[in-house]
Fold this sequence. Notes:
Pfam families: XS
Radius of gyration: 27 Å
CATH topology of the largest domain: Alpha-Beta Plaits
Oligomer: single chain
Order of helices and strands: EEEHEEHHEHH
Largest sheet: 4 strands, antiparallel
Helix content: 40-55%
Distance between the termini: 77 Å
Strand content: 15-25%
Number of strands: 6
Strand order of the largest sheet: 4-5-1-6
Number of domains: 2
CATH superfamily of the largest domain: XS domain
Structural class: alpha+beta
Number of helices: 5
Protein name: XS domain-containing protein
InterPro entries: SGS3 (IPR044287), XS_domain (IPR005380), XS_domain_sf (IPR038588)
Shape: elongated
Domain XS: 1-113
Amino acid sequence: MWPPMVVIMNTQLEQDENEKWLGMGNQELLDNFKDYEKDVKARHSYGPKGHRGMSVLIFESSVVGYMEAERLNKHFENEGTDRDAWDQSLRRILYYPGGQRQLYGYMATKRDLDFFNQHCQGKSKLKFELVSYHERVVNELKQMNENNQQLIWYKNKIAKEQMHSKALEESFTLVSQRLRKE
């Protein structure tokens, strides 16, 4: 999926007086993940009965954005709150002791985003494209590595030239002093 996205589940909060579901706001959701990339955006899925309890964090369309989304996905896996945990509906824990909401999350797939967009129309639909991981991430990482190698080479070349320039300057100073003495 591009841009990289992580599905966040269990973001539905309560029903209002019209029996419509309310959910977390964008800022509340983003505050839960403030240790991740700064350019993350939040979107929520709504249906006829209101908030559907499904939200998405949209990361920057870059290798860095992908790596941050992957890092968040790994966090959910390590905590046991990933797709598998969410899909095992009998074992879901919706709240921690004390009442804090337990969020679940995983990298988005086309199927997830089609489900997310199920009740959306026009501009409210979440836009995404299917792209090659190799093309968008692996090739970009290779290019970044090559650029870093080139940068190191240029830094070393500049350092050598600065040393050479300093040696020439010192030689020039010595020759100038000798010529003045004669």
